[in-house]
Amino acid sequence: MSYVVLALKWRPKNLDEIVGQGHIVSTLKNAIQGNRLAHAYIFSGPRGVGKTSTARILAKALNCVNGPTASPCGKCPSCVSITQGSSLDVLEIDGASNRGIDEIRELRESVKFAPAQGKFKVYIIDEVHQITSDGFNALLKTLEEPPEFVKFIFATTQPNKVPLTILSRCQRLDFRRISVMEIISQLEKIMLSEKLKIDKEVLFAVAKSSDGSMRDAESILDQLIAFAKDKVSIKDITNMLGLVEQDALFNIADKIIGKDPRSALEIFNQIMEQGKDTNVFLNNLIEHFRNLMIAKVAQADSQLIDLPQDICERFLAQAQGISLHDIFSAFNILVSSQEMSKRLDSVRIPLEIAIVRLAHDKKNPNFETAAAPKYTPPEIKEPVIKEKLPVDMPKAKEEDIDPPQAPIEPEAKNSVSLDAVKKVWNNAVEDLTKIKMSLATYLNEGVIVSLEGNLLTVGFPKNYSLHKESLETNASRAIIEKVFLELLDTRLKVNFILSDELERKDDAEKHAFVKSALDMFNARVVKEI
Q: Which of 121, 155, 200, 347 could cross-link 115 (Cys pair, CB 3.0–4.6 Å)?
């Protein structure tokens, strides 16, 4: 006998064997027991969650020798023929292959004939959304008033593509994605029956990669058994599917929380050397921070995270070291790296930038300069030419020769007024454009908040954190303070803050180029676009 794949071998044979669709099972059982079955149903939901299997079970429940019954025997000729797909009373039609008006007309003609063996004639149309508009129109009248012995069951993954005229004539049952824990429980039953030994962490990886599809999980398990033969390890599943191990995600998150960018990059590089997909890793890392958020807010509720309890507890422990604000910032940075990857046609570089930004310790003032020492060109000394003194010239005594004096910098003023700073603000921005355009652009978005002594505070709105971070580096701050020193003849210390109370200034009037144009033509801004 040829080998039967697990997805077919373990296909549910009655309503009680359907996994993860308790609401559907209860509805159908009550309808059968109360003799309130509709003439047409539409089963909608993701792939591999049991839509077609449930349709077959419903057909058996209607045509069983004991039926209609919520528990078909599975042994009578009608049940056996439906299970084998050879029943003359249950017609399974592929909507993708039989989508035209001619096929629907044939179906409409066959509806008139009574069932050959059972009590009902059941039409199961899979992927019904692929039927053409003309085909649906041809089906309308028959669907609305079919013979008493006819039942229609439509299955689709895209109910939004089914015309409303069809939907309004059917009872709709929505199938949901099956949870990770429900899939793991079913896989454990399969292993026990098949006498297989697989670690639970392997089953967890299989369930996660199936994306809520029981059929996909069973197919992956089948492939994994063939791949690894006797003993199946977590390494086998990660190699086969290109997954990123959960431990690797926890490790890189630890380095990010611990502000260790070098170690975080090393872990990422090791993952990439194993041939993992950068897109898969990025999505997994985003999901990891999502789970940290849930653990932080809901105390690692396993129903919300949908992971085994021991992993939920790891998330809860790791979430203690990171704030919600930092988690939200991580989301923004990682999603930005996805957008950047589309423009660069590369995922690795934006992802490396994102990891360093996440692990960057903003409280460490030496972070920017720690990686590479500042280059200082070698000092070139001019040759010293000694003049010969006349023989009769008396040598001067050492005490009579004045020592060379170091150049004296002009002494800066002790204080300056706030009005004076405001007057030179635009000049400072213009001077910065000649030195470093990005600094001028960022500073131009700021607003002077206060001047206390020689400490100038410049504020930005809350969502301008990039401006603040770029300006407050040691190198950037030194350039800005030097510009103010040259304009005011006063040494100022510049401080940058974020505030909810600040609104963005009018860019049109504030920008130096636009301002000069307004002055030249004696114009004003009428409307900002």
A: 121
